[in-house]
Amino acid sequence: MNKKQLITKTSEVTGHSQVLIETIFNHMQAIIAEELAKEEKVSISGFGTFSAVKKEEKERENYFTKQKIVVAAKIEPKFKFSSVFKDELNKN
Predict the structure, then answer these.
(1) Residue 68 is part of which domain span?
(2) What is the pLDDT of residues 27-64, one digit of tens each?
(3) Cα(33)–Cα(39) distance, integer angstroms
(4) Number of independent structural domains in the chain
(5) What is the CATH classification number for the domain harbouring 79?
(6) CA-based angle 50:28:56, to the nearest 5?
């Protein structure tokens, strides 16, 4: 299922317009990204927790050319499903 299909299905289930669902989804996505950029966690009860790990700049070696390259610092997002969600998924 992709984003468009998720929005369509949510619209059908809730009775709200696809435009409203997509707007809310986009705002939630932006808020989560904003919080992760500040190195904050976002926990959604019964679903899971978004977190981020800050990776420092590091030097690596290209295995083929043996040249040194610098890998830029970055923030790596992570997601961990809650046990409630996992239990619900495995009920069937």
Answers:
(1) 3-90
(2) 999 999 999 999 899 999 999 999 999 999 999 998 88
(3) 10
(4) 1
(5) 4.10.520.10
(6) 40
